[in-house]
Amino acid sequence: xxxxxxxxxxxxxxxxxxxxxxxxxxxxxxxxxxxxxxxxxxxxxxxxxxxxxxxxxxxxxxxxxxxxxxxxxxxxxxxxxxxxxxxxxxxxxxxxxxxxxxxxxxxxxxxxxxxxxxxxxxxxxxxxxxxxxxxxxxxxxxxxxxxxxxxxxxxxxxxxxxxxxxxxxxxxxxxxxxxxxxxxxxxxxxxxxxxxxxxxxxxxxxxxxxxxxxxxxxxxxxxxxxxxxxxxxxxxxxxxxxxxxxxxxxxxxxxxxxxxxxxxxxxxxxxxxxxxxxxxxxxxxxxxxxxxxxxxxxxxxxxxxxxxxxxxxxxxxxxxxxxxxxxxxxxxxxxxxxxxxxxxxxxxxxxxxxxxxxxxxxxxxxxxxxxxxxxxxxxxxxxxxxxxxxxxxxxxxxxxxxxxxxxxxxxxxxxxxxxxxxxxxxxxxxxx
Length: 432
Known about the structure:
Layout: H1 3-10, E1 20-23, H2 28-41, E2 49-55, H3 65-76, E3 80-84, H4 93-107, E4 114-116, H5 121-133, H6 138-141, E5 147-150, E6 153-156, H7 164-173, H8 190-205, H9 209-234, E7 249-251, H10 252-256, H11 260-271, H12 284-291, E8 299-302, E9 305-310, E10 313-317, E11 330-331, E12 339-340, E13 346-349, E14 357-360, E15 367-370, E16 374-377, H13 378-384, H14 389-392, E17 397-400, E18 403-407, E19 420-423
Parallel strand pairs: 1-2, 1-4, 2-3, 4-6
Antiparallel strand pairs: 5-6, 7-10, 8-9, 9-10, 11-14, 12-13, 13-19, 14-17, 15-16, 17-18
């Protein structure tokens, strides 16, 4: 394989990017990628190059790696940025370090920028085996994608079709120098065990095992894309009844018309940008939520939030929506200006309202005067308006003295604007 030609062909679709950034660990793979791109940049019109080294300091040897990376980048005329990250305590230090590294890199990308990672075909084969042994489904067995969104830019792996032996031969031929992570030589970690014990044994019997495993990952990625298309079709729904409520939600009835397998596929597609997905054992939570009686407020708790069932819909709640907020009355001394509500966004008036105003929350027993209909019990009125149960206690209420005048976001009569407007708290999401 001609590595420079392969790299140019693989990255041809990214030539219009504003910049290419190489994730440089200082090891063999990323050193080869940096050398290739630095050489190609002298002969071809590539985007500007830079490198980023993430220093997580998990072992003493790592303290010398930023200096090594700096010397290599200086020799090639490529600017280097060193990022120091804290790796939180985790059951798997390798997984925690990988997440911290990817998060730090993604945060440094500008719009449209391409982050280049040097994962190769043997890495892909190792990932397939690792996930297969963990009982992964089609999505997991698709292993590492060749490209995906990352922060404001893109993450691209241009060497996934290249074997480690090819990279090793190139590095030896070019007399490159790289660092060796001493932890990679130990087989205690699962991935290292696969790399040093399992994959060599497989190759001794089936020499093309890494290529076959990587090819299987490609088949799974294609199958996952088809499942994504099916999920998108199954999730095509009319807009929610409360368009001002910026929470991800789904109508329940269309899901109930699908087979259980298609329900789970659609929900995976819906939940993937919102939370870490549950493993097989925890999917019974969906069955419980789907089949629950509506006397209470059915809920399925997931890693990064909750899926609630209310008003014939499934609602995703996270961040501020799962936190308690002060519910005592908030005086409004200057109704002509917006009023900040502790832990609950802010409100403003569409038109002047006389009297000493304050914002309160539902306590029970409130009555609302509706023009032409007299007074209505607030609880029943909210049920008629289709207000989800989880929202009823959070809706700001406008009072003058002891009289309830308005409910945030709802007009008192058809064709009118709501007297009280509410900037709803954000449903905090993390990048996935």
